[in-house]
Design brief:
The protein has 329 residues and is α/β, with parallel strands linked by helices. Helix content is 32%, strand content 22%. It has an eight-stranded mixed sheet, with helices on both faces. Strands 2-1-4-5 form a four-stranded antiparallel sheet, with helices on one face. Strand 1 and strand 2 form a beta hairpin.
Length: 329
């Protein structure tokens, strides 16, 4: 069996606070296979973005630190890398598209300067050849007037155009893993569809694996091969996209799917999950979703459930699940 491109094992990322440490990511495990798209979903504060920053070696220091676990990329534990070693991989073998395109691009430098700098930083290539490669990439991501785009500054481009530029910059070095943190946030539906289609094309053309951070299950249904559902710093369910949408097993996953409006539905109010995500510096003793769960019983508040494989490659963190929907007794 082929080894995964990226393997995260028992990863714990904490932030120092005035009292107890804030457990942003609290012992997660998942693999990303070669040439696959993994979506990590969950509400704000679930630990999705911190997980992606950990892979990139960008957890804010000294407040943030990796307390335990490993992040293995192509057989090497990235946690053991020096800053120089990880910077040689960052943007080259692993690239990241950040959430907000306006703040991710330097406002005082042209697109050409920023893209050339990205390529020359990691590849032994002349500036002339770099520009040829950059223009080819801009054409691939849908720009026809490449000269005009290269001479532009970020504020002269629309949000969708800036996002496509960021994707192009991330793909210049043909990374083996692309991490996309909410890449379609604030984009209209038409541009969102174009960005998702572009990412699928990149997977096919460059054999790139993708780790996408999102809260939008519509995007997950459109693009994902595998799905990881996070809640309060933990994984509560992971499965193939087909299995997850066909038979969601964890009450939190079921509630997320129930929150999606359906065409033809006549209810006056959209469903929302009651309550809020517990504070990361004061998690409850038992199941972290118990206070919001319609199926919770007394034992749920006392004992932390383990992440168990309920059926082939379908893992759930819920003691009430026995191979189907939770049994509410």
């Amino acid at each position: 069996m082929e080894a995964p491109l990226l393997s995260i094992n028992n990863l714990k990322v904490y932030f120092s606070g005035e009292g107890d440490d804030i457990k942003a990511v609290d012992g997660i495990d998942f693999d990303i296979s070669n040439e696959s798209i993994m979506c990590v979903v969950g509400e704000s504060g679930s630990g999705k973005s911190v997980t992606s920053l950990s892979v990139m070696g960008l957890v804010p220091k000294p407040e943030g630190y990796i307390a335990d676990g490993s992040i293995t990329f192509k057989g090497q534990n990235l946690i053991d890398f020096t800053e120089k070693e990880i910077s040689n991989i960052r943007g080259n073998e692993i690239a990241m598209i950040f959430q907000e395109p306006m703040t991710s691009l330097n406002p005082v430098l042209s697109i050409e300067v920023q893209m050339v700098e990205q390529l020359l930083r990691h590849k032994k290539i002349s500036k002339k050849n770099a520009l040829v490669k950059i223009k080819e990439m801009l054409e691939f991501i849908g720009f026809s007037r490449t000269e005009q785009i290269l001479k532009s500054y970020p504020h002269e481009l629309s949000g969708g155009m800036r996002q496509r530029v960021l994707i192009g910059m991330a793909m210049l070095c043909e990374p083996e893993l692309l991490i996309a943190d909410e890449p379609t946030t604030a984009l209209d539906v038409t541009i969102q569809a174009q960005v998702l289609e572009l990412m699928k094309q990149m997977k096919e053309k460059y054999s790139t694996s993708v780790m996408m951070i999102t809260h939008d299950l519509g995007i997950v249904a459109e693009i994902a091969d595998e799905v990881v559902v996070m809640y309060a710093g933990q994984i509560v369910e992971k499965a193939s996209a087909d299995d997850l949408f066909k038979e969601p097993l964890h009450p939190y996953t079921q509630a997320l799917l129930k929150s999606i409006p359906k065409i033809g539905e006549t209810t006056r109010e959209l469903y929302s999950i009651p309550g809020t995500v517990p504070s990361a510096d004061n998690f409850p003793k038992g199941c972290r979703f118990a206070e919001r769960c319609e199926y919770a019983v007394e034992s749920c508040h006392k004992k932390m459930p383990e992440l168990r494989e309920i059926k082939a490659r379908h893992f759930v963190r819920c003691d009430l699940v026995e191979g189907g929907e939770p049994d509410n007794g």
